[in-house]
Amino acid sequence: MPPRFSLCLLLLACLFAGTANAQTPPPEPKFAVEIPGPHGSPPGYATLPPEGVSSILYDQSLRRIPGTNPTKRQPSALELDYKVEGGLVRITASVFYGDFDRNSTPTSLSNLPREEAGAYSAGLNESVTLSGLERFGLEPLTLKIVAARPDSSVRPQTVSKAPSVQIEIVGEDRMFYKVELHNLSAKPVKAYCIGTPQGNGNMAHSSDGQSKDLIAPGATYQLRFSVESPPPPYLVLEAALFSDGSHEGEPSAAAQLVAARVGMEIQRQRVDSLVAPILADAQSDDTAKLARIRSEVAQLTEEPDQQMIESMSSRFPGLTDQAIQMVRGMLKNGLNTGKQSVDRGLHDFENNQPKRGGLTLTDWWSLWRKT
Questions:
Q1: What is the largest distance, in Å, between two alpha-carbon atoms of the chain?
Q2: Using CA atoms, how far apart are residues 167 and 46, in angstroms rounded to an integer?
Q3: Given 228, 245, 262, which residue is the final one in a domain?
Q4: What span, in angstroms and rounded, lies between the C-alpha atoms of 365 and 276?
Q5: Is 157 domain-assigned?
Q6: Structural domain total, the chain
């Protein structure tokens, strides 16, 4: 009996974002930074591309010095900027003060007070201690510069249950496998589900907008998939969803992909019906309209109703009770995503208003809904 997969998670605009049909592949990174995990947990790694990258540490990842004066202002986040310069990695540490949205870093940190906590450098296989953190009530953090690729590894075999889409591991670093999906069909791929027999790290990926295609016919799409320890024997493309609504692969996985998109579309329709009369109110300015939209959208339910469940069950007959519960979870995920996308969009409108040349909320909404 083939292995079952426990869950497909919908990830929109996240760390696993891929690129389709890249013309010139970027140079392979040489370095990674090993970051100790909180409370003795395994370390994390930041792979360093030539243009540099940053890490954000907050909450439990901030190791505070015991006995620090509780009345003294405490940092809420630590940013580590890495830049490769020749054979060295330059590290700049900065602390931030104040509350921020954990789901939209580093953007949500941009307006917070910050102070530099020191600049450091180290070469391959060297460690560096960020002693300047002590000034801010944080324990010094020791980082190690390591090779981007592990010394040795055992890659899982790749299997596709969707005949029109091939899956291949083409590279790796200490955190991710670099995976390519090849769309052999004449139809664009809208979403896919990848998993492992252990059921860990399963994921689905979808384009940002309902109108966008993820992988064009004949195109190749790149993504990153988390490395597990020990590595799984197989990395499996469980299902693929195409632009015409058809699908290939495991019915239960395909049902979850469809459910997530159905949830998003239903929530989108609910949001649009709420927003239309608010935008049409000539007596309110944009500030008042923003407040009303946020308030009313926040009250929309994220729980799928029985009609949604029955519709999915009829579309995918024969699903087990466990699979139906997963479908329910993906409907809920889609309903939540439909709400959260509005919140992110409104934040973007507010934060970039000076750059929009006086674009009204109504005009912006019309353009944003088309993206």
A1: 66
A2: 25
A3: 245
A4: 10
A5: yes
A6: 3
pLDDT at 22: 42
Spell out the residues 6+ positions from residue 31 whose beta carbon is closer than 8 angstroms to its own.
47, 48, 84, 89, 124, 145, 146, 147, 148
Contact criterion met (CB below 8 Å) for 146 and 127: no
Do 118 and 94 share a structural domain? Answer: yes
Query: Measured between alpha carbons, how far is 97 from 138 in angstroms, rounded to an integer?
Result: 13
Q: Which residue type occupies 16?
A: F
Sheet containing 141-147: which strands, arranged edge to edge? 44-48, 31-35, 141-147, 127-130
Residue recorded with tokens 């109504």: 362
Domain boundary among 245, 274, 293: 245
Mean pLDDT, rounded, for 277-295:
95
Non-local CB neighbours of 21 within 8 Å, separated by 6+ positions: 216, 219, 220
Question: Worst-scoring range by mean pLDDT, 14-18, 167-171, 224-228, 344-348?
Answer: 14-18
In a domain, 160, yes or no: yes
CA triplet 77, 83, 84: central angle to 5 degrees?
150
Domain that holds residue 335: 254-368
- d(CA 249, CA 360) in angstroms, rounded, equals 45
The pTM of this model reads 0.70
Sequential DSSP letters for 289-331: HHHHHHHHHHTS--SPPHHHHHHHHHHSTT--HHHHHHHHHHH
As a whole number of angstroms, the distance between CA 176 and CA 156 comes to: 12
The percentage of residues in the chain with a pLDDT greater than 90, rounded to a whole number, is: 62
